[in-house]
Design a protein that fits this description.
This protein is mainly alpha-helical and 942 residues long. Among the domains are: 164 residues, P-loop containing nucleotide triphosphate hydrolases (Rossmann fold, 3-Layer(aba) Sandwich); 54 residues, no CATH class; 134 residues, no CATH class; 107 residues, Winged helix-like DNA-binding domain superfamily/Winged helix DNA-binding domain (Arc Repressor Mutant, subunit A, Orthogonal Bundle), CATH 1.10.10. Helix 31 runs antiparallel to helix 32 and helix 36 packs parallel to helix 39.
Length: 942
């Protein structure tokens, strides 16, 4: 096999700075010889390095030592010091070592002795003589010893003294970049995907990569070859057979072959499958010998085989003992089941085609998979049952409904649950109670996905009753399902805004989930608890949402669909605080997390937050399109969504801003009396009155609303009090009732300050009133200053983009707004449907008289704007690239262009300039009170 040279700089540096003795220990084909040869060549050590191999000399110490002496004499320093040696009957190893020590005593120039294939030096006398040479040689003679396994040379004291360096198999594995370099050196250029696949399958094993390179040359479909490359490839199999498997004793060979059916193996399992004893000792020895056996736990009790080696073993087992396979898998399944490894047990039972065992095991343990967040594993196990088995077992038919639910196939899930119920009498008597409980859980999940909240409550209560029986306790159907039922009850009540019951049930479920160690259930509870808390207090919602996010981060669940709700909660809070750019990042994360599933309740929530963001940003046409898209989800015969009043209020505010006052009047007139009398609707009606230049009617509309003197102390979020008091102030000001206007505005600011509620001031704009209020005296000067800054920024953006709206945009959205399709030209507010960064910069420069150096010198592209939104976070360029699914080079190019166009010299300076232009949200005022939401690190929390 040819060995193409790849410059492995990090390893070269380790060798160059190593201690007096370096051991390179790794399995065959790890690239030891090639590494040492290329290191000598690349480092310019050719004249100072003596290289000798023990291959073929292991049983003849005299021959080995003469080879060592000849190699040393071939170096620049050795040629002047070493006397020639010739074979003679009385020339044993001890004599040669003493000869070497004498001749090398005056050595002053650094010289290396590299001994390769040292594992073949098996003669006891030779190893003893080598130990003498290592311990007594002059300091300028450095040793590099390469072997397939650790040699027992008694060098532990040198390790303690720092004179022994060790390079093992893990360090010799090629990185993906080195693998690509190896392929290119071999004259092949596979795609990035092929390199990734080959690097994964070989685990960076040098020989595997080189064998792949040989096969790749001239292959018509490199990507397909990479996907199919395994240890059963002829060239790989021949190499591993000759160099590894055939080198083992027969008991070891049998252990390797029989346990190759396992993904991981320990001593007891090895003993079971071989019918022998001492399996753990053999596995430890194989790992120590570097024979493609890797410990997977710190205690070195569980082991796995290198992927290619495992492939070879399975191929060889099929060739020589295929009749044993069902029995081996069956024995493994029963051992795993008895020792608490249900997933492995089901997999092996399926492979053994012991369907009754597989069905029983999955039914017994399915209730643990979903509460533990192992949805992917559950899908994998269900996929292991053929259609005939699914049809023949009511238990599996029912469990397949879980798959359908996760795929969003609600009708198919309903069909399967019906079929399972019809076949319930075929379930063995000892499994029937468990089957009934699981069916209840599945019906509960289906009702939640459908948004049928009464059905959720009914099934959850039924589940609670079912698991309180003695039989359920005997079957182990206890705390985990109890927590699930409580959380389901709480989430259903939360969606219906039955807050008291929701909070109680969620708290009980969260406490129970923590007690029994079910973090996924705890996460579900925290998500819905944050949703409820945010309806009463932004501070409480922010705190609970961060608890949920941190828990999701710790367990790698940040992209699970359940987290979409908590991302949306965070986005909603940021929108209320006017931090729209940050809110957009969180909302995008929520939408990505949910896109793989159909969940009506969560989808309505996300649409509601998206419409709120568009409304706050002045994108009124877009908001109406979002609201029309969510209408079918927000109202079904089973359960109208609790957020429907908020969605309706968003729609009416957008119509008002677009000048469609007649449409709003008709909508209000069609409402039932109780709907029209709530606070949110009265705020909408007051805004309509002001838009129609009827401030007295606005006051009359708001008059029935009462808020405490300190509106922030109310047990409701301050959004409605702030909006109502602000509209009251605007109406009073229009009626020239200055004192009443000042009083109402100050109360609005009082209510807004604690939670930093800016949204009402951005939707109902009154900059002149706020400026005058700041001059006349207020306790909230900093808050007013920030609101005015936001309003000025939005005004600049609106002016800049008024001429940029393309007619086709209005027509594109015409189906979403119905009669409002022509409103974009009727009201100036419609001009902010889209924004142009270049327009912002130019208009800002013109409006303020500042020179072009203070603003962007040319327009930012869409891609640059996307990157700009991430600059205020702490994300690195690679992390931003991962978030946007772009290359790091592209991200850095965009960042460089952003700096140039903004006239910035650093990331921080670019952020400050972008904030001054309104391209990203301004930072909170440093002197303001408690900051509810911590600075956004990123939407990517892994």
């Amino acid at each position: 096999m040819t060995h193409e040279i790849v410059c492995r700089t990090a390893l070269f540096e380790r060798l160059g700075h190593a201690g007096r003795i370096t051991e390179v220990s790794a399995p065959p084909g790890s690239g030891k010889t090639t590494l040492l040869r290329s290191w000598v060549d690349e480092s310019g050590l050719t004249g100072r390095a003596a290289r000798v191999s023990a291959r073929g000399k292991g049983h003849d110490p005299q021959r080995f030592w003469i080879a060592v002496a000849d190699a040393l004499r071939g170096t620049e320093a050795g040629s002047a010091l070493m006397r020639p040696l010739t074979a003679a009957p009385d020339l044993d190893g001890d004599v040669v070592v003493e000869h070497l020590l004498t001749d090398l005593g005056p050595l002053r120039d650094r010289t290396w002795l590299i001994i390769d294939d040292l594992h073949e030096l098996t003669a006891p006398d030779a190893l003893h003589q080598l130990r003498l040479l290592l311990t007594r040689a002059p300091g300028e003679l450095r040793f590099v010893l390469a072997a397939r396994h650790d040699m027992r040379l008694g060098l532990h004291r040198l390790r303690l003294d720092g004179e022994l360096s060790e390079i093992r198999a893990s360090s010799l594995r090629f990185t993906r970049e080195e693998a690509r370099a190896l392929f290119e050196a071999a004259g092949v250029s596979p795609s990035e995907k092929a390199v990734m696949l080959l690097h994964q399958s070989t685990e960076g094993w040098a020989a595997g990569l080189r064998l792949a390179a040989l096969s790749l040359a001239g292959h018509p479909d490199p990507d397909r070859f990479a996907a199919e490359f395994s240890g059963s490839d002829r060239t790989v199999a021949e190499y591993l057979l000759a160099e590894v498997l055939e080198q083992q004793a027969e008991p070891v060979r049998q252990l390797l072959l029989r346990t190759s059916v396992l993904d991981r193996v320990n001593g007891p399992l090895a003993d079971l499958l071989t019918g022998d004893s001492g399996g753990e000792r053999i596995l430890l020895d194989l790992e120590n010998a570097g024979a493609f056996v890797v410990a997977v736990d710190p205690q070195r009790s569980w082991f796995r085989y290198h992927r290619l080696f495992g492939d070879l073993l399975q191929l060889e087992l099929r060739r020589t003992g295929s009749a044993e396979l069902p029995a081996l898998h069956g024995a493994a399944a029963r051992w795993y089941a008895a020792h608490g490894y249900p997933v492995e047990a089901v997999r092996h039972a399926q492979t053994a085609r012991d369907w009754d065992l597989a069905v029983r095991l999955l039914s017994e343990h399915w209730g643990d998979l979903y509460p533990d967040g192992q949805v992917g594993t559950a899908h994998e196990l269900l996929a292991g049952f053929p259609a005939s088995v699914v049809a023949g077992y009511a238990e599996i038919t029912g469990l397949m409904a879980a798959w359908d639910l996760d795929q969003g196939s609600l009708l198919e899930a309903q069909r399967r649950l019906t079929l399972a119920a019809q076949g319930s009498d075929t379930v063995p008597a000892d499994r029937r109670r468990r089957f009934e409980v699981i069916s209840t859980v599945l019906r509960l999940r289906l009702a939640r996905r459908q948004g049928n909240l009464p059905a959720v409550v009914q099934e959850a209560q039924g589940l609670l009753r079912a698991i309180e029986t003695a039989e359920a306790a005997r079957l182990g159907l206890g705390d985990g399902l109890r927590a699930l039922a409580l959380l389901s009850l709480g989430s259903a009540e939360a969606s219906a805004l039955g807050l008291d019951g929701a909070e109680r049930h969620l708290e009980q479920g969260i406490v129970l989930a923590r007690r029994i160690g079910r973090p996924y259930l705890e996460l579900v509870g925290l998500v819905y608890a944050a949703h409820i808390a945010a309806t009463r207090s932004y501070a409480a919602g922010a705190e609970l949402s961060m608890q949920a996010i941190e828990l999701a981060r710790r367990h790698g669940w940040a992209d699970k669909p359940v987290t979409a709700i908590v991302w949306a909660v965070r986005a909603d809070i940021l929108i209320v605080q006017g931090r729209l750019a940050e809110a957009e990042l969180w909302l995008e994360r929520a939408e990505r997390a949910l896109q793989s599933q159909v969940n009506r309740v969560a989808s309505v929530n996300l649409h509601c937050v998206r419409a709120g963001l568009e409304l706050a940003g002045g994108e009124y046409v877009a908001a109406l399109a979002t609201l029309e898209a969510v209408e079918p989800l927000a109202c079904t015969p089973a359960t109208p969504h609790a957020l429907r009043p908020i969605l309706r209020a968003h729609r009416l505010h957008a119509l008002i801003r677009l000048g469609e006052t007649g449409t709003v009047e008709r909508a209000l007139a069609e409402m039932a009396a109780d709907e029209r009398d709530n606070a949110g609707t009265r705020v909408v009606e007051a805004a309509l009155c002001l838009a129609q230049a009827d401030p007295q009617a606005a006051r009359n509309t708001l008059a029935p609303l009462t808020f405490p003197a300190d509106a922030s102390s109310a047990d409701i979020r301050p959004m409605c009090p702030v909006a109502a008091l602000l509209l009251e102030a605007m109406a009073c000001d229009a009626l020239d009732r200055r004192d009443e206007a000042r009083s109402a505005l100050e109360r609005a600011l009082d209510a807004a300050e604690p939670d930093h509620v800016l949204l009402p001031f951005l939707v109902h704009r009154a900059p002149d009133l706020l400026e005058r209020h700041a001059v006349e005296g207020t306790a909230h000067a900093a808050l007013i200053s920030e609101i005015l800054d936001r309003l000025r920024t939005d005004a600049i953006a609106t002016t800049a983009t008024a001429a940029d709206i393309v007619p086709s945009e209005a027509s594109t959205n015409s189906t979403a707004v119905g009669a409002v399709s022509t409103a974009a030209g009727a009201a100036p507010a419609a001009a902010s449907v889209t924004r142009s960064a270049a327009g912002v910069a130019v208009s800002a420069g013109t409006a303020t008289g500042l020179g072009p150096s203070a603003y962007a010198r040319e327009s930012l592209s869409r891609g640059e704007m996307r990157v700009l939104r991430y600059l205020p976070t702490n994300l690195s360029a690679p992390e931003i690239a991962a978030e946007l699914s772009l290359s790091v080079n592209t991200i850095r190019t965009h960042m460089r262009h952003v700096y140039e166009k903004l006239g910035a010299h650093s990331r921080n300076e670019a952020v400050q300039l972008a904030r001054s232009l309104g391209l990203v949200t301004a930072a909170l005022h440093p002197t303001r009170g408690t900051r509810l939401a911590p600075a956004l690190r990123a939407p990517d929390f892994e």
